[in-house]
Amino acid sequence: MEYKVEAHRIMSISLGKIYNSRVQRGGIKLHKNLLVSLVLRSARQVYLRDYYGGICLSAQQAREWCEGEYMDSEQDKLVPGSTESLPESDGQSEVAVDKQEPSNVVESHAALDVESEASGEQDHAENGVLDSGCSELKTPEESPEASPTCEVSNVENLHEPIVPHTCTNRKRSADDSELTDSLPKKTKVMSSTLISKNDEKKAETEEMDTSNVSSLITIFGSSFSGLLSSEDGAQPDSEAEDSDSGQICCDQMLKNLNPWSTAIVAF
Amino acid sequence: MAGVAGGNDFQWCFSQVKGAIDEDVAEADIISTVEFNHSGELLATGDKGGRVVIFQHEQECKNRPNLRGEYNVYSTFQSHEPEFDYLKSLEIEEKINKIRWLPQQNSAHFLLSTNDKTIKLWKIGERDKRAEGYNLKDEDGRLRDPFRITSLRVPVLMPMDLMVEASPRRVFANAHTYHINSISVNSDHQTYLSADDLRINLWHLEITDRSFNIVDIKPANMEELTEVITAAECHPNQCNVFVYSSSKGTIRLCDMRTAALCDSHTKFFEEPEDPSSRSFFSEIISSISDVKFSHSGRYMMTRDYLSVKVWDLNMENRPVETYQVHEYLRSKLCSLYENDCIFDKFECCWNGSDSAIMTGSYNNFFRMFDRNTRKDITLEASRESSKPRATLKPRKVSTGGKRKKDEISVDSLDFNKKILHTAWHPKENVIAVAATNNLYIFQDKIN
């Protein structure tokens, strides 16, 4: 439980930093904001994982769903900087590269059910399935959020109703070790089972009666997209994006400030 | 050339401190960059107020040959002013991010100084003679009445008090959308590179109205941005090679002969992350804040938040040496995130013979590592230990439960006193350490 509070605290601190960066002298610093957004997303993932503490999902169903997706095992070996060498489009490979970050913590999300599986299964199905699948869905339209929302739409379109497992008890330390074991930084290994579980949780996110949390989730959907507007859809790809992003984020944040502060008070 | 204290024959001692003593530090006085020139005769500092101060090493006193000469102010000038970008409604800070000296080619000295957006080439020249005896004007400059002139004379050069003049010779502007973090002069002495968060440009020192973009990592869709460029440097003797580091802890070495746009690297240096140490802040602390080639060009050094790594350019999969700077901070990352200290960008430097490396820490501590003996030392830049030629006492931070005498506990470290910028004389054991608004100069004890 304390991890949830800690994650919450880190999220609010991160939001404060992003907000303050708007008024900082010298303009918005891209590097610092990128790092803060990464922390924010990690914290959000942990927060959501805790939120769904009791929900477990069927691994088998998730795997079946994944097999239906286009698989490209080459994307496992994606190395930053050499994405151009892959036959896929740049947008696709970029999405795949980007996914490395959410997938790290996505796995922690679905840590719940991982423990119940054999540890070998975690290494199973190492593929960029979701990447390619997602990007194919994404590229036709300019959706402001990249991976996770895209995953949601995948789920909603393709997935059959989920039968929740009874969840197994897991210790907090086990969760953490799973989080840390999940990825060495370099390899783009992702367990399709875990990602699909995350999708399902995301689908349920919208249903949950936490409008402030969900709206913040939509803002900070993936690595950096959270700093761009989630309302206006496609952003003009201008050079002023980094400065605009702060403003729009601030507006979004301001709208959510009141419900957010009440949420904080509630904790 | 000896490296690091630890043996009986080598010790660092205080030489000088420059800057105000006041507790109240004006933001503009905070030193933001320190750099020796190639001979070590000149030491330049830039501050947040956009000023550059150059110190010159005066000749050793003939009467007292045991004393190394001191550094005294040679020139001070305002390099950059605050600007306003009307299009984006953004203020451009005048803070000097980097100073790099050009190799000396004549009696004048040249340096490049940069703020977030604009790079300037400054000429620092001496004038110690003045022409006297003009025909058309008086000594005080007033024009003489031409009808009163009855004879011609040839002006004569008379000695005058030494005047050091700094004049901007080139202004390289409008080439960077994002904040410039690095500049590096190429070994061909004709070109230099400048790097911002997403792009690296190659300039010719004579041409200001255009530059070549040689690296562009801006994604087509900014939502997909995952890493930024944090530092870049030209190879010290191969003019076609440069490296740049990223916020993900990776370094890319590029060869400009392969392509005009060096988006694909020649070498890629990354150490696999230790999964057991993963936390919320793993990405932040792996971000590289500085990269420096060794003088030999065989190695390069990178600084991330907690460690310094030495890489062999021939081995890409892991560094050859890793030195922990302040590992005791690993458990404090959350509070360091809150107070923004986790975003501090520490620099690192080599000594002239590449046998030792130095970097800064908090509480005005700085660390030196001897690569040969594997010894390390922590020293402090403080006014208390600022007696002339006083030997610096090694400091220690206590990490365990029991704090020994003279040790400092992690919780009593002052995180506002940070040493981000240090420089090592290219030939001698003289170091310059910037502690907020003070510049400390230390040297080895001459026996």
TrEMBL record, chain A:
One Pfam family this sequence matches: IER
Bias-annotated ranges (Polar residues): 82-92
Region annotation Disordered: where it falls in the sequence: 76-149
Top-level taxon: Eukaryota
InterPro entries in alphabetical order: IER
UniProt family annotation: Belongs to the IER family.
UniProt-recorded name of the protein: Immediate early response 5
UniProtKB/TrEMBL annotation, chain B:
Organism expressing this protein natively: Oncorhynchus kisutch
Coiled coil feature spans: none
UniProt KW keywords: Repeat, WD repeat
Gene expressing this chain: PPP2R2D
Subunit details: PP2A consists of a common heterodimeric core enzyme, composed of a 36 kDa catalytic subunit (subunit C) and a 65 kDa constant regulatory subunit (PR65 or subunit A), that associates with a variety of regulatory subunits.
GO cellular component: protein phosphatase type 2A complex
Family classification: Belongs to the phosphatase 2A regulatory subunit B family.
Stated name of the protein: Serine/threonine-protein phosphatase 2A 55 kDa regulatory subunit B
GO MF, any single term: protein phosphatase regulator activity
Gene3D superfamilies linked: YVTN repeat-like/Quinoprotein amine dehydrogenase
Region of interest: Disordered: 381-404
